[in-house]
């Protein structure tokens, strides 16, 4: 087989697609919602098409296609390991996405494990630690004011945890469990890159392990688990220009192998009787069921493609575009950029903002309907951080929560996010800035209303035609959207 890298490595499927606008005609779609789900690389789409005729069952099939599929699946595993700088003895478990990977690790924690998490995290790195039955507790640390404050908070919390695990005579208390520090690699709300090396050094100095949610980091910046002392790393193919339903958990063997599988079923076992089961070793132990071979291959090709382009150059380009975007948006009266730490910190290509006098959903709808610009709006699956950035107190949050529980539809907080990818240009950023300047100065050029069916701002009327789509089911349209989907954020 030829290499999937034979094509243009930066080409994106659908980068030149035109979409209808409410004022008539079509415009080129400006995709600035890459942080939610990145489009497919052409090398990925072509690579999947190339291997699809060879698709078959993996690992135990004797047929030639099965052997080819198995080889491709295992090559993908090694491509993922190489891309994130995994150690030779690290497990690479193919999952569905980042959320699945973190839930897998949460299920494998030793008994009485304490998990330390900051209040800035995506829900995928916040909620699974509450659910695990083995770990002792999860402790949330406040939003750090700076990288130095982050490290200081973490060091203090680890000292407290260690002191709490010591007996009066200075020996370790019996039954004290391990500690896991789990942080984002780059914020999906502000784009700020976290000081992973410093976090790792602090965690390891106190005998803790370190897990990184790399959903937003891996597509934008070089990652080296061995160099930075990252014990576990979770990532998603759909953020990595490989939207074929695969993700990965990369990390140390012991916790994953010393526990029962996250999922029980075929593929995870060596031998089963009616009263006993012998589990398989890793990675099979944590990959029950028929694996997503095509998704894994797509992710492996994406890793090789991005490595071939050079993650250092991608990071440098995005940093320059981020500065350009912040400069343009900050110059527009009434537009406010949300940041946790400030512009003097490194960022991936992502900017979150608000427009005075407009609901975040209304701004996103105007950009889409009139300007063919796709952005994200809401709280981005990071509600505690957004409440912090929006300066909402506990009382306001409680009022929203109680209204929702009562079946009401209160206006939910949020902001607008533009996020960049390989195909983003300065012209795309300028298009957003020009559109926002027009909205801030003159208002929208169309009428909009909150749909009672979706709770979302939509053009009223909306004359845009749907494209010809596969599947014979009756059209669902916007009314089929979940009421809170956009505000809740995106999956990982």
Describe the structure.
The protein folds into two domains: 10-39 and 311-488, Alpha-Beta Complex (Aspartate Aminotransferase, domain 1); 46-308, Type I PLP-dependent aspartate aminotransferase-like (Major domain) (Aspartate Aminotransferase, domain 2), CATH 3.40.640.10. The strands form six sheets. Strands 4-10-9-8-7-5-6 form a seven-stranded mixed beta sheet, sandwiched between helices. A four-stranded antiparallel beta sheet has the order 13-14-17-16. It is 35% helix and 16% strand. The two termini are 32 Å apart. The longest helix has 20 residues, at 64-83. Helix 6 links the parallel strand 7 (179-184) and strand 8. The model is unreliable at 1-7 and 479-488 (pLDDT under 50). The protein has helices at 42-51, 64-83, 98-107, 128-131, 147-164, 196-205, 225-228, 253-257, 293-309, 311-330, 360-371, 383-389, 394-405, 426-442, 485-488; strands at 18-20, 26-28, 30-31, 91-95, 114-118, 137-141, 179-184, 209-213, 232-236, 247-251, 269-273, 276-279, 335-338, 350-355, 373-374, 376-378, 415-419, 448-450, 457-459. By secondary structure, it is α/β, with parallel strands linked by helices.
């Amino acid at each position: 087989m030829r290499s999937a890298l034979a094509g243009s490595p930066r080409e994106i499927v659908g980068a030149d697609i035109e979409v209808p606008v409410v004022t008539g005609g079509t415009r080129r779609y400006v995709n600035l919602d890459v942080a939610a789900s990145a489009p497919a690389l052409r090398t990925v789409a072509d690579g999947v098409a190339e291997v699809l005729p060879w698709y078959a069952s993996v690992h135990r099939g004797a047929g030639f296609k099965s052997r080819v599929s198995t080889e491709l699946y295992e090559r993908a595993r090694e491509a993922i390991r190489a891309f994130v700088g995994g150690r030779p003895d690290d497990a690479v478990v193919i999952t569905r996405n980042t959320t699945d990977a973190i839930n897998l690790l949460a299920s494998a924690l030793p008994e009485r494990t304490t998990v330390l998490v900051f209040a800035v995290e995506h829900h995928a790195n916040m909620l699974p630690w509450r659910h695990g039955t083995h770990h002792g507790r999860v402790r949330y640390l406040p939003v750090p004011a700076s990288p130095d404050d982050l490290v200081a908070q973490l060091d203090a919390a680890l000292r407290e945890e260690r002191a709490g695990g010591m007996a009066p005579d200075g020996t370790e208390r019996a039954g004290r469990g391990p500690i896991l520090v789990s942080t984002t690699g780059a914020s999906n709300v502000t784009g700020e890159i976290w000081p992973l090396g410093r976090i790792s050094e602090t965690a390891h100095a106190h005998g803790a392990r370190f897990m990184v949610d790399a959903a937003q980091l891996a597509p934008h910046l070089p990652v080296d688990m061995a160099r930075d002392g990252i014990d576990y790393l979770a990532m998603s193919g759909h953020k990595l220009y490989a939207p074929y339903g695969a993700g990965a958990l990369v990390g140390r063997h012991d916790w994953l192998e010393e526990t029962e599988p996250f999922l029980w079923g075929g593929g995870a076992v060596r031998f089963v009787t009616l009263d006993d089961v012998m589990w398989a070793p890793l990675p099979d132990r944590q990959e029950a069921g028929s694996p997503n071979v095509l998704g894994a291959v797509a992710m492996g090709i994406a890793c090789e493609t991005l490595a071939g382009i050079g993650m250092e150059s991608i990071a440098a380009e995005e940093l320059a575009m981020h500065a350009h975007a912040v400069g343009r948006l900050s110059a527009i009266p009434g537009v406010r950029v949300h940041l946790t730490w400030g512009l003097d910190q490194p960022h991936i290509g992502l900017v979150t903002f608000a427009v005075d006098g407009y609901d975040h959903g209304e701004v996103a709808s105007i950009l889409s309907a009139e300007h063919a610009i796709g952005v994200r709006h809401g709280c981005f699956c990071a509600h505690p951080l957004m409440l912090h950035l929006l300066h909402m107190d506990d009382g306001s949050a409680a009022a929203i929560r109680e209204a929702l529980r009562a079946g009401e539809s209160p206006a939910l907080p949020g902001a607008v996010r533009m996020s960049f990818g390989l195909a983003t240009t300065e012209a795309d950023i300028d298009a957003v800035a020009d559109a926002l300047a027009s909205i801030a100065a003159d208002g929208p050029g169309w009428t909009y209303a909150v749909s009672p069916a979706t709770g979302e701002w939509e053009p009223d009327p909306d004359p845009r035609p749907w494209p010809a789509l596969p599947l014979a089911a009756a059209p669902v349209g916007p009314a089929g959207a979940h009421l809170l989907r956009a505000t809740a954020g995106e999956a990982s």
